[in-house]
Design a protein that fits this description.
By secondary structure, the protein is of the alpha/beta class. The protein has eight helices and nine strands. The chain starts with 18 loop residues before the first strand and ends with a helix.
Amino acid sequence: MSHPVFLGSSSSEVIANRPAILGCPLDVTSTYKRGSDAAPQSIRISSESIETYCPKLDRDLSDYPFADLGDLRLDGANLEAKLSEIYNNILNILDQGGTPLVLGGEHTVTLPIVQAFKKRYNEFVLLHLDAHSDLRESYEGKTINHSTVMRRAVELIGPQNLIQLGIRSGTREEFVWIRNHRVLSSFEPGGEKTLTRRIDGRPVYLSLDLDVLDPSCFPGVGNPEPGGWSYQLMERFISFLSTLSIIGIDVVELVPEIDKSEVSSITAAKIIRSLLLVC
C-alpha cells in the first residue's frame, strides 16, 4: 500500500542541501486534548488540496526539490527510546547534508532535535514560536514533556540563544524567567530589523508550535489560546525567514480531529509549503 507524501515531493531519500520532511508522530506527554500523532499524515493528505505555487513568495515547489522520508515508527517503546529514535534520525539527515523539516507530533519532539543539532553546531539560535512558553522546570512530576521542552533545550544551548515569539501563556515563574533572560521578542509589522539584530547572523533552528496562531484561524490544536497571530502575520514572518540561515525546522501540535472542517490541516500544509520554499 502506498503512503501519502507531501505535495511535490521529489524524493524519498535525503537530497544534499535541501529540506527533508520527517514525520515524528509522538503523542505521549500531551495533557489536554490528544491526537497530535495523526498530524503528519493529515498534513500530507491536506497538501493535495493546495497548489505547488506560492503567490506570496512567487516561488513554486517544482523549482525547489525536497524529500519526504515518511514517518518514524514511535509506537511500542518508552518515551526515552522514542526520543532516542528521533535524535538518531535527525543526525542521519544532517550527516547526509539535508535540512530536517519535522512534522510533529507534540512539542516534546523538539528536545532530541536540538540535542542532535547541538552535536553538529557550536552555536545556533532557537527561534521558538508558540502561545505557551514551555519553560517549566517540571510538569506533573516530570521534567521532560511538552511544558518543559524549552527549559530543557535552553539548558543545552544557553538562554542567549533562545528567542521566543507569540508567547501569551505561562506560569508566573516562567514569565519571571523570561523577563530575567530577555528571551521574548515581538514580530509586529516593521519588527524585522529588531529580530535581525538579535539573531546577528547566527544559524537559526525554528520550532513552530501552531497554537501561536489565533484559534479563529487555526482551531485544531490541543491547547488553544486567544489573542494569537493572524495567518497574514505568519506569511510575513515566513517571508522574513528567507533572509536567514535556516538549519532546521519543526512544526508541531496540530490535532486534526479537533477541526472537522480540515481547515487547520490545510492551513498547516500551506505553512509547510512556504517553509519548504525558504529553507
